[in-house]
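User: Structure please.
Assistant: Input sequence and predicted structure:
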Amino acid sequence: MKKKMAMISMVMLLLAACSSNNGQDEQKKHEKQNLEAADSVFKQNCASCHGNNLEGAAGPSLKHIGSKYSEKEIMSIILKGRNGMPAGLLTGGDARLVAEWLKKEHK
């Protein structure tokens, strides 16, 4: 009886460990998808002025923009435009995705 209880306890612990790791895997998968989506949106809408590698071209370099501005400030620049950059090139979810990506990935 003690062996059965010990075995059941072990199985339950293993299942709990697997399920908590699965949540982390799902979160990492979601984050990776967001990064890929933001990169794609940037390349389609922003790279012609800011460069594919954020090195700048007609627009300024964005290589370390995440260390200069908050996500909220980056979002405001994207939505309202600035210094020759027109407003409204990105809106809604795309603007939010790119602002978050620039803040987190380009410090």
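Helices lie at 2-45, 47-50, 65-68, 71-80, 92-105.
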